[in-house]
Amino acid sequence: MLTLFHHPMFAACRFVRLVFGEYGEDLALIEEKPWARRKEFLTLNAAGTLPVLLAEGDTPLVGATVIAEYLDETRGVLKRERRLFAEGPMERAEIRRLIDWYLTKTDGEVTRHLVRERVLKPVMPAEDGGGSPDSGAIRAARANIRQHMKYTNWLAGTRHWLAGPRLTYADLAAAAAFSVLDYLGEIDWREHAAAREWYTRVKSRPSFRPLLTDRVRGLSPVSHYADLDF
Amino acid sequence: MLTLFHHPMFAACRFVRLVFGEYGEDLALIEEKPWARRKEFLTLNAAGTLPVLLAEGDTPLVGATVIAEYLDETRGVLKRERRLFAEGPMERAEIRRLIDWYLTKTDGEVTRHLVRERVLKPVMPAEDGGGSPDSGAIRAARANIRQHMKYTNWLAGTRHWLAGPRLTYADLAAAAAFSVLDYLGEIDWREHAAAREWYTRVKSRPSFRPLLTDRVRGLSPVSHYADLDF
C-alpha cells in the first residue's frame, strides 16, 4: 500500500485520494500540518508542499499533477474503459488544462485562501501565522467563486462529464475543489443547475465516500455536505 | 508552423520557445500584453494566461506543462536520445517536479513579481494596474532568490544536468526562469559556481540564441546577459 502525506481540506490532496478510490487501490494517509515544516517531511519534499505520495520504492512524488501523471503511466494505461485519462494527445491536453484550472487557478483565486483563513489560521500557532481570519482575504476569495461556478456550469451543461463523454481526472480535480468549498458552505448551488447535477453524480460515487466523512477540528461542515440529494 | 501567444519576459513562455528550439521546429510568435485581456485572446483561453500554443488544427493548448506534455506525446517520443523527457515513470516524475518547481514555485516566489514590478507596471496603463513599482514586493521577491539559487547549485553540483545524466525539460524550465532574472540583473552568479557552470552550458545551446536577443521596451539587459563567458 502506498502512503499519501495530505491535509483533508486541500483540494489537491482530495484529488489524489479520489483517483486511488476510483482505481480501487488502498492508500495509507498521513495528515501533515503544512505550516509546521516538519523536518522529516521536508527531507521528502524540500518545497514543503502537499500532497506528497510515497510511491514504489518509497520515492516521494510531489504535487497532484506529477502524481496523476505517474498513476496514469503505472495504473491508468491498464484500466481500459475505467482509465481516468484519454488516449489522444488533444483530449489529454484538455484534461490537463482542467486539472490545472481547478487545482491551480481556482485554488489560487478561491479555495486556498478560504481554507487558510477559515480552517488553518484558527488552529495555527501565532508564531506560524495563526490568528484571526483576514476578512478582506475572505471577501476577495468569495467574490471569485461565482466565475468558477459559472464556468463549471457551462462545461457541465455542454458535456456529459467536464472534459467530454467519460469521467476523467478533470471531474475529480473539480469535485475535489468544490467539495472543500461545499464543506465550508461557500457554494450556492441553486443558481447553477448543470453544475449541481454533475456534482451530485460525482459525489454519489463510492470513491467520494471517505471525503464525505472528513471532519476538521472546530469546524463542522454545512448541513447538506454529505447529503447525496442536496 | 505552430503559433505561440507569449510574452518575452515570462519564464513559462521562454520554456516553450526553448523546447521548440531544441526540437528544431519553427514557431510563429505573437506577443500578448497579458493585462490587456484582448477579446480574441480570451476566446482562446478564458483564463487569459500565457503561454497559449495554437497546436495542430488551431486547437489552443494552455499553459507550459500542458504544452510540454503534448509536445512529448507528439514529438518527443520520436526523438530518441534527443528526447527532452525520460522513459521511466520515476524519472518522468522527477522531471515534472522540477518543471513545477521552476515555473510555479520559483515563479510565484520570485520571477513573476520582479517581472510585474520592473517590466510590466512601467508600461501598463494606470487603469490596468500600471504605475510605480512596489518596492516592498521587489524586496520580498529578491529575498527569495537565494534559496532557489542554492537549490539549483546543489542540483547542478550533484547531477550532470538538473534531472540526471541528460538534458531534459527540467533544464529548460530552470534556464527559462534564470534567463528572465539574469536579464534583470537579479542574479549574483559568483556564489554559485555549479549553477553558473550549468547555466553556461544551457545558454550556449543554439536553442537559447533567440532568447538572448530579446529586448523589452525601456529596459536594457544587464551587460553580461548575452555573454556566453560571463
TrEMBL record, chains A, B:
Keywords: Transferase
TM regions (residue ranges): none
CDD domains found in the cross-reference section: GST_C_family (cd00299), GST_N_family (cd00570)
Keyword rRNA-binding: no
GO process terms (BP): glutathione metabolic process
Recorded GO MF terms: glutathione transferase activity
Domain GST C-terminal: 88-222
Assembly and oligomerization: Homodimer.
Stated name of the protein: Glutathione S-transferase
Organism in which the protein naturally occurs: Manganibacter manganicus
